Amino acid sequence: MKFVAFLLFSIFAEVIFSSCPNGTVEFQNHCYFFETNATNFPNAELACNSLKGHLVSIHDGFTNAIITGQSGNYFHESTVTDFWIGLNSLMVPGNWSWTDNSSFGFTEWAPTEPKNLTMNCGALTVKSGLWDSDDCFKTKPYVCETSTVTYPSFVNCSEGWVYFQPTHSCYGHNGYSSQSGNWAVAEKYCENQTAHLPSIHSYDEMRFLWTMVSFMTGVAPWIGLTSNDNEVTWKWSDGSPVDYLPWASGYPKLNVSSCAYLYNNRIWDYTCTYSLYFICKKPATL
């Protein structure tokens, strides 16, 4: 029943939502569904296909750690020791690949693994995070991976802008300047696009914004936070409430009229006349 509900929600969400459905784990633009009902490897892959996804593929140690850690929250029955991932050698024994046809490079095999026997498929061990190989027709729980669902087309979230559902706002690439500028220049640039330098009101928004900027350049950008009274009070350029200020340790510290930038999921104060890159934010409209 849970699987059917997730399937129906996924189809509906593809049209009107932009984040992962409830009951899934979102990480790096993917949704991970942890299915507790055990089945064999082929049926698990078919079930994931019905969600327009595949059994999960893992390409780095951090993702492996995320999947392992979350598995303990879902596969906590005492009899569950491992679960299917998208790894298999069904085409050519001993030649391992992912069901989504992504590149196979990173591995986390347990000692003596893989066994490289005929009809072998890969599973991830709940306690250790290491991979083992097993008969593909054994039944195990499994993890599906899908892309985050598509956002609706908002008129002002045109090409170059990214819609973020929790804030119902657009964050732009053409709202992102490849040229640097001081804070006032950056804010004026955004205002000319009926936007502002971004205000931040939650950890999720901060993480989204920093991930977006890191993907583009990795350079710290101006945000819309500024102080005109030697850092006694702060305000956002878009006039929104100052309700979330995740300052870096020891900041703010200039004790002069200053502005703020975002770096590594923290806010730092800086002299407003310095030049930094920037990104803009505006409310989404239909």
From TrEMBL:
Residues 27-145, 170-281 form the C-type lectin domain. Pfam families: Lectin_C. InterPro entries: C-type_lectin-like, C-type_lectin-like/link_sf, C-type_lectin/snaclec_domain, C-type_lectin_CS, CTDL_fold. Residues 1-18 form the signal peptide. Keywords: Disulfide bond, Signal. It comes from the Eukaryota. This is C-type lectin domain-containing protein. It comes from Panagrolaimus davidi.
